[in-house]
């Protein structure tokens, strides 16, 4: 493993995760607010998806087309039509072992040594790892907490160089829970158009929306820019372990034939994605959208989001922008109250004293040690207990440091 990639992996995982595993092996119970693994918290996939997979499993032993089975790819085409993305055919759809595999594939097909990709800060750290693994250089543009974690468009413009090949837009956003308005998306499209950039759009949470918000696919806003859109079943359909994701190529495909050929070669090299996971896609997209019940006012995810934000904002020196989407909060620790030099060590100390595991903000390539990510998937009683423990730890921290 290269030193660069090893460093990226360490930033993602950190010492707290290793320590938490050791503590669990010693019989200690850890409250995990560190990962969006929905099944762990009793959020299970719709039964009709499970039953379809069971019924079709006897016929799922063979390889499929390298891009995936016809029926789920056709269902994805129909979904892009619902989202208003123009000009998508079945040949533009690639099914993968989760969106993660396809994200790495999309970077490997594109990047040469020295090529740059613009990534949000904070980001989902897989992107930084994928760019680095592919020989590229990640350059992070700032998302502004003061505007609800929207991308700083001027910062994006400043960081474009002759080596910039694309820009990643994570909307809805992990780790902040931000949802980008159409006006911001149009500005990003124009930046991409002027500078000849590919837009990589991560929309894995596009149905996990609160307070009646709606999501706009950035690829629906133009047909003269190349878009690579990622989505899947993991979050909206609580099917993380099924590893059923997809990638859609749309927009200006005429000038990207070499890149698309590279994607096709890489898709063929891995033979195909897992067939049972593919079998869940058509039913999921066409069936009852139970995620709407979870995010509606009074729904489980909406209640847990509201509770987590309220409890965090009650802690002195802690502020948390209310997420409009996804499954996460990204609270800020006032540096005047919490003078943290090393947030990995801070999170490790919190784990040792509270048995609560969160992720440090620098693990998401946030530049300063003053944030951490909280997953609000546990039931309300567990959230109260976990955030209560965090509050007591922070109270002691303030006392120790004169706050």
How would you describe this structure in keywords?
three-stranded antiparallel β-sheet; about 400 residues; alpha/beta; eight-stranded mixed β-sheet
Mean pLDDT: 94
| Strand tally | 15
- Give the helix/strand class: alpha/beta
Q: How would a textbook summarize the main sheet?
A: 8 strands, mixed
Residue fraction in strands: 15-25%
Radius of gyration: 21 Å
- Shape field: globular
**How many H/I helical runs?**
14
State the helicity in percent bands.
25-40%
What gap, in angstroms, lies between the N and C termini? 42 Å
Contiguous uncertain segments of 5+ residues: 5-11
The largest sheet has its strands arranged as: 2-9-8-7-6-3-4-5
Q: What is the N-to-C order of secondary-structure elements (H for helix, E for strand)?
A: HEHHEHEHEEHEHEEEHHHHHEEEHEEEH
Outline the secondary-structure elements.
Blueprint: H1 3-25, E1 31-32, H2 47-56, H3 70-82, E2 93-97, H4 98-108, E3 116-121, H5 126-133, E4 137-144, E5 150-151, H6 153-158, E6 164-170, H7 182-195, E7 198-202, E8 226-232, E9 244-251, H8 257-269, H9 275-278, H10 281-286, H11 291-295, H12 300-313, E10 318-319, E11 328-329, E12 332-333, H13 343-354, E13 356-357, E14 359-360, E15 372-375, H14 380-400
Parallel strand pairs: 1-13, 3-4, 3-6, 6-7, 7-8
Antiparallel strand pairs: 2-9, 4-5, 8-9, 10-12, 11-15, 14-15
Helix pairs in contact: 1-5, 1-13, 4-5, 12-14
Short account of what is shown:
The protein is α/β, with parallel strands linked by helices. It contains 14 helices and 15 strands.
